[in-house]
Amino acid sequence: MITFENVEKSFGRHTVLKGIDAEVRKGEVVCLIGPSGSGKSTLLRCVNGLETYQRGQIRVGGTLVDASSKLIHGICARVSMVFQKFNLFPNRTALENVMEGPLYVLRENRHDVRERAMALLARVGLEDKMHAYPAMLSGGQQQRVAIARALGMRPEAILFDEPTSALDPETVGEVLHVMRALAEERMTMLIVTHEIQFAREVSDSVLFLDSGRIVERGPAKELLRNPTHERTRDFLRRVMHPV
User: Which of 8, 25, 95, 99 lies in the 20 to 30 Å Cα band around 64?
Assistant: First the structure.
């Protein structure tokens, strides 16, 4: 579904991605973990053209990702993204936020879009918040609206960029619950996260990034229980047993 071949990305003289090779198969959940500044979010943003990469190739369903190509709009429609900070339109209700993409990007029928948007909000447990504006919602509720909005595009895959990092501890669980349900339905997902327990329970495989490189990769339960690289072991100790 998504392949990375020797991908390199720099900001000026600073190289943030150094020869990334990886793949995400259809129906697979892959988690990217690693310290801040390791390139996880940048890699994610390269998939749908929010960042441009200088070398290598990224393909979505066989189509080359090129931010300067007209095909990038088709890729964005096939691969939705959920951001840290929700990125909802503040002047639109939850229902209108979910309807926005299908109406104005996919040019679908308004009645059908509205019906699907209502069903998606019910699916994430927000049927009673359809007419609420983002400012009236908690962080966890806003992120669930953002997930419903991503699903509204009927994507083949969803990218999650630390979806719980901006939430307070009480609302993290409600977002992870929705993501677990998507994993059970075999939605293809590439997730940047610091929620190690979630990654262990839900993902098929994990990539550990450090300084722009994939240091270690493997099945989630195996890698997170018994990592082989000392850098991975050190990171997991710090994350799971912070001082």
Answer: 99
C-alpha 227/C-alpha 232 separation (Å) is 6
Q: How far apart are CA 137 and CA 86, in angstroms?
A: 11
Name every residue whose Cβ is closer than 8 Å to that of residue 162 and which is 6 or more positions away in sequence.
41, 84, 192, 193, 194
How does pLDDT run across 192-240, given as a tens digit for each residue?
999 999 999 999 999 999 999 999 999 999 999 999 999 999 999 988 7
CA angle at 66 for the pair 28 and 10, rounded to the nearest 5°:
90
Please tell me whether residue 92 adopts helix, strand or coil conformation: coil
Residue in this structure with the two tokens 């997170």, named with its chain if needed: 224
Tokens of 184: 């059970």
What is the 3-state composition of the chain as percent helix, strand, coil, each rounded to the nearest 5? 40, 25, 35
The backbone torsions φ and ψ at residue 28, rounded to the nearest 5 degrees and listed phi first, read -100, 145
What is the rounded distance in angstroms from the CA atom of residue 161 to the CA atom of residue 41?
6
What is the distance between the alpha carbons of residues 199 and 197, in angstroms, rounded to a whole number?
5
Burial grade of 90 (CB within 10 A; 0-12, 13-18, 19 or more): exposed
Cα–Cα dist 225/129, whole Å? 40
Q: ∠ at Cα 42 (45, 88), nearest 5°? A: 45
Written out in words, the top-level CATH class of the domain with range 2-86+157-240 is: alpha beta
The tokens describing 162, both together, are 């630390």
